[in-house]
Amino acid sequence: MTTSTAAAAATPRAEPAVPRGGIGTAALVAILVQLGLVGLVLRQFQIESAAFRRLFLLVFCGFALHALLPVRYRLPFFLLLSLAGVGLVLGPENAAWLVIIGIALIGICHLPIAYLLRVSLLVVAGGVLAAQRANWIASPWSEAIWPILGSMFMFRLIVYMYDLRHETEPVSPWRSLSYFFMLPNVCFPLFPVVDYKAFRRNYFDQDAFETYQTGVDWIARGILHLLFYRLVYYHFTLAPSEVHNVGDLLQYLVSNFLLYLRVSGLFHLVVGMLYLFGFRLPETHHLYLLASSFTDFWRRINIYWKDFMLKIFYYPAYFQLKRLGATTALILATLFVFTMTWFLHAYQWFWLRGTGLLVSQDVLFWTILGVLVVVNALHESRHGRDRTLGKRSSSWRSRLELSARTLGTFVVICILWSFWTAQSVSEWLSLWTGLGVGFSMKAVVAAIVLLGVMVIPLIAGPTMATVKKPADRRKLWRSLVATALLLLVMAGMGMDPVYSKLGATIETTMQSLRSGHLSRLDNANLERGYYENLLHVDRFNSQLWEVYMKRPTKLLDVETGPLKQYTGGFEQYELKPSFVYSNHGTSITINRWGMRDKDYERVPPPGAYRMAMLGPSSVMGWGVSDGETFEALLEDRLNREASSGNRRSYEILNFGVPGYEPPQELFNFEKALGFAPNAVIYVATGRESYRAARYVADAAREGRPIPYDFLRQAAEKAGVVRGMDEAAAEKRLAPYQKEILSGIYARIASESRQRGIVPVYVFLPQVREGLWQEETPEALQAAEGAGFVVIDLSAVYQGRPLASVRVSEYDDHPNRLGHQLVAERLYQSFKAKADAIFRDASNADRAAK
Q1: Cβ atoms within 10 A of the Cβ of 640, count?
Q2: Is the confidence at residue 669, as pLDDT, over 80?
């Protein structure tokens, strides 16, 4: 026996045979206190969905029991807790279907037949499920389970089958089921790809207290990422059409990439919760903003995805190709990985959303990034890998080089990311055209981020080791105190009595951070998507993606299909006359004139006071049944409460059309004149000038004739021509937004008064946050200046949770209660302004005019 062998034999094993799982009372109480603070922060800032916040309460209670159980009972308990979470979020029926399908797929993995036959059966089963996901084959379960079922099995089955082939330990049904039905997954369709071996091998393999505290640390870090994400998302993002100068471009590029904070935040949240149940998984992201090369970026940005691709695709391909030479094998295997990454992103989109995804930017993005990584990898293979943030720099020169590489990598990634997330190549190219000189305060913040990316590696690079050493007890308690203080600060800042005393700017910012609403840009895209079927929400850095994912596919078909007929004119479409639609108890009836209303005669009856109401889908009444729209309720109320001395009858004709923008209301107005109204009620719902200019830009660049001189002249002055890119056209028309809207209002108001018609302007807010307030004062001022009788309903939903007055989580139209509130407020406003609105005039005279 050699000396080294004897020494090895005499040295005891570093790890005990039985996994560690015990924790002292003081430590357990400290963890529970921190989790209580986490729950408070989640509630204060409305982190993610209400379902997730309910699930976290289950996690809190489950953790307390789990930590007290003997180790051998903890895995079964975790599985039961996970299944309870599925039932809590999806409901009993959907949960039962999901579990049954999942168990069937797992069962195929363990059939006593050849490995290739099992793989073939999984492919067949996946094909059947894919046909059902695409609605080619009817399925008895709700569509609600698809995103979660796909998230649980689309990648995990690949990893599981790969590891089964090389597995030497006996299979545990508790572990296998726990791996697929992981507790947090039911609330997070976008879920990290967890490696099965790591899930099995690292279960309670270290001190339980350290594992639990690391989980709390990561949860707190994840919440911090999500709050920074909201700050960027609400206050710094720009549309391509809003990039007019170098400062805007810098703000656009940096903020667009920083939206990835949502993914890193969610992944930290997810893995932190798994740590609470003993699963000591690797870090998901590591200082990815400070990557100093493209290979370094690939290693840091999504560690789980990188590990998955290396394990399943890179290493098998590399060793198969190695006979061609190490360099050739490296190049081909790396390019293969990025090709598969593109394909698997499309594959993921299909299972989560149910539609295909083939976008040219995806192909180009992954191709360019793959080539950059290959070039870096070749450089590293020849000159050695410089472990930049884990190496102590020897001189200021080497630190400066590190900073320069880090800044350069960050800038290139920001540019590449902007290309990937653009709706089209032409839109991305429009970012770089017509740039002037200018720098806003928000652009200064973006510049500070760039400066930080350069300075942090320069100063702190040597301390940023990539390998974490086990913490001793003192360090562990210091970490606990630091995390608890961070959670206390976040919880305190989320309280109204605290932030309301810190100044108007901080108060406004904190109010925006306390809810997970869509930004003004995503609201605008959602608004267009409702009516134009624009599914450009295929990028995971947007909350709009989640809204579309939750919406039933059939709802889009109804909104954009049989309800409308296309006219070929400037207005493009109108409601289909004599159309009846019914779904889940909601009926929509369109009369012979193309209005969602009673079948009025063209000429009003004697003594009737007729009003024509113009507006978009909220006026038409999408989401409520016939007779439940605020227009119908207001008409009934006016007729019911008319005084005995005044037997005048009232008619309100509903000319609302889903998706109509202000220029289209000019067509609607002309149509309404043919019904001899006494008053025209124009209902505005927010961002009027932006939407008006956007519609004119679309018409001009698509070559549609514009029949209104002032709109056509605005497009000509702006230089918008046929075939121009959407973003470029909107950018050129942006300076004319107010002019366009004022012209529309002036035309409707002046022509109404010339005909003896009273023009009434009603501002009705959208049932969502963060969008309609932006241009409201300007629109109200323009309407008053044009001569409208103005009614402002901005506060109509005030004091009520938005969820109580909207159709559903994925549909922001007012529901039945919302319409009742609007009708009541309109009635009171009409009474208050009766002298200005209800003027006597001859219907016959107006019809003659």
Answers
A1: 8
A2: yes
**Residue 38 amino acid letter:** V
Q: In sequence order, what DSSP letters do the residues of 388-455 get, joined into one string?
A: GGGS--SSHHHHHHHHHHHHHHHHHHHHHHHHHHSS-HHHHHHTTSS-B----HHHHHHHHHHHHHHH
Give 676: exposed, middle or buried? Use CB within 10 Å, 0-12, 13-18, 19+. Answer: buried
Q: What pLDDT does 285 receive?
A: 92
Report pLDDT digits (tens) over 709-767: 999 999 999 999 998 888 888 888 989 999 999 999 999 999 999 999 999 999 998 88
Dihedral sign for Cα 818, 821, 825, 830, please.
positive
Q: Which residues, 6 or more positions from 499, have their beta carbon under 8 angstroms from its beta carbon?
A: 493, 506, 507, 510, 511
**Residue 274, H or E segment:** helix 261-275
Tokens 């004091």 belong to 799
What is the length of the chain? 849
| Angle 78-83-84 from CA coordinates, rounded to 5° | 95
C-beta separation of 733 from 696 below 8 A:
yes
Q: Stretch 66-86: mean pLDDT, rounded? A: 95
Q: Residue 155 in contact with residue 122, Cβ under 8 Å?
A: no
| Partners of residue 203 on adjacent β-strands | 279
Print the SS3 string covering 599-614.
Answer: CCCCCCCCCEEEEEEE
Structural domains of the chain in order of their starting residue, each with its CATH number: 20-223+471-501 (no CATH), 547-848 (3.40.50.1110)
Provide the whole-model pTM.
0.81
Angstrom distance (rounded) from CA 179 to CA 203? 12
149 CB-contact burial (10 Å; exposed 0-12 / middle 13-18 / buried 19+): buried
Angle value at C-alpha 39, between 33 and 42, nearest 5 degrees: 145
Q: What gap in Å lies between CA 678 and CA 613, rounded to an integer?
A: 11
Q: Read off the DSSP letter of residue 355.
A: S
Q: What secondary structure does DSSP assign to 126-178, as a single string?
A: HHHHHHHHTTSS--SS-GGGHHHHHHHHTTHHHHHHHHHHH--SPPPHHHHHH
E-strand spans in 550-641? 564-566, 573-575, 580-583, 586-589, 608-614
Cβ neighbour number for residue 455 with a 10 Å cutoff: 14
* Range ranked top by mean pLDDT from 417-421, 527-531, 540-544: 417-421
SS3 state of residue 653: strand
How far, in Å, are 32, 90, 223, 477, 607 from residue 36 at the CA level?
6, 25, 14, 17, 66
Tokens of 537: 């929400």
Examine the pLDDT at 112 and tell me if it is beyond 70: yes
